[in-house]
Design brief:
Elements: H1 2-25, E1 29-34, E2 39-44, H2 45-101
Antiparallel strand pairs: 1-2
């Protein structure tokens, strides 16, 4: 357990060092133009790329959350249908047994 904790912390540290290296090597400004709006500006390259990465991560998170919610709703509907069918089977078994004994 301690090994995995140390391994996880080492992975976070390595990831942090990689991000810092990326930031320090991509500090030069780039021209940004928002096409449909006609706005222009300059930003450091690392900021542009990190912003786009975060935006993509957010869109992916929203999409996967929607898929997960749909799957949960479908699961709940299926569980209710299974419970209803089990009740019907149990009711038919009890009526079938009472007719056999009579």
């Amino acid at each position: 357990m301690l090994f995995f904790r140390i391994l996880g912390m080492a992975a976070y540290a390595a990831f942090g060092i990689l991000i810092l290296g990326f930031i320090f090597t991509n500090r030069h400004p780039v021209a940004i133009e928002l096409f449909p709006f006609g706005a222009t500006g300059e930003m450091p390259l690392y900021l542009v790329l990190c912003t786009l990465f975060a935006l993509g991560l957010g869109i992916g998170l929203i999409h996967s959350s929607m898929v997960w919610l749909r799957m949960r709703a479908r699961l709940r509907r299926s569980e209710r249908a299974i419970a209803q069918l089990e009740k019907e089977i149990a009711a038919r078994e009890t009526t079938g047994q009472s007719q056999r004994t009579a």
